[in-house]
């Protein structure tokens, strides 16, 4: 289970696809959620098309397919591939832009149990060398922001007990914002001499230029789907 609210068992979708199609046929799932149908189709040697309106679902499907089948090849249509496309997404939907931006770092969108997000748009998790888990808070701004916006992220980090934070922005930060982030210094990983910047500001243009924040291993953030073997790769059974 990947934690997606409407996730169906993989075995159920395999049974349905086996009963209703042949190898090489195309399976279409127009509301593919976390991708169980397309994963089953890939496993059974079917071609497939998956459609979903949310960037959260798309990011989960991409990770799931690569976890199941490390050599899988697929094309994603509809995700921003330029700063201009990212601007268009932000204008169309603030929440979809935030979900997409959080997914760029492999983050988990924040689910508030109460009112408001408390300045948290996404989370990353990592374990230090003493075996303790920590959180990295991600905050996303698709429009105007100020030095106070960046300072509020630090206040949220302190309130949530998160040692590290990443501020993702569509527009470039001012020198004052960069100076403030740099003034926070670095956090030393317990059990190690490794240090990481307490706060980093990443623009969407930075991301498209190949720049990434300096972070610990955050692979524990999202559940890893188990490796699957395609039907065509299985050894034939002996009679």
Q: How does the SSE layout of this entry go?
A:
Elements: H1 10-20, E1 26-29, H2 36-43, E2 47-50, H3 55-68, H4 83-92, H5 94-104, E3 108-109, E4 122-127, E5 133-141, H6 147-160, E6 164-169, H7 175-183, E7 186-188, E8 195-197, E9 199-203, H8 204-208
Parallel strand pairs: 1-2, 5-6, 6-9
Antiparallel strand pairs: 3-4, 4-5, 7-8
Helix pairs in contact: 1-2, 4-5
List the total number of helices: 8
> How far apart are the first and last residues' alpha carbons, in Å?
35 Å
SSE order, one letter for each helix or strand: HEHEHHHEEEHEHEEEH
How many beta-strand runs? 9
Proper CATH architecture of the largest domain? 3-Layer(aba) Sandwich
CATH class of the largest domain, named: Alpha Beta
Give start-end ranges of low-pLDDT stretches: none
**Share of β-strand residues:** 15-25%
Q: Specify the overall morphology.
A: globular
Count the domains: 2
Largest sheet: 5 strands, mixed
| Helix percent band | 25-40%
Q: What is CATH's topology name of the largest domain?
A: Trna Endonuclease, Chain: A, domain 1
What structural category do the secondary elements indicate?
alpha/beta
Strand order of the largest sheet: 3-4-5-6-9
Average pLDDT score: 91
Q: Rg from C-alpha positions?
A: 20 Å
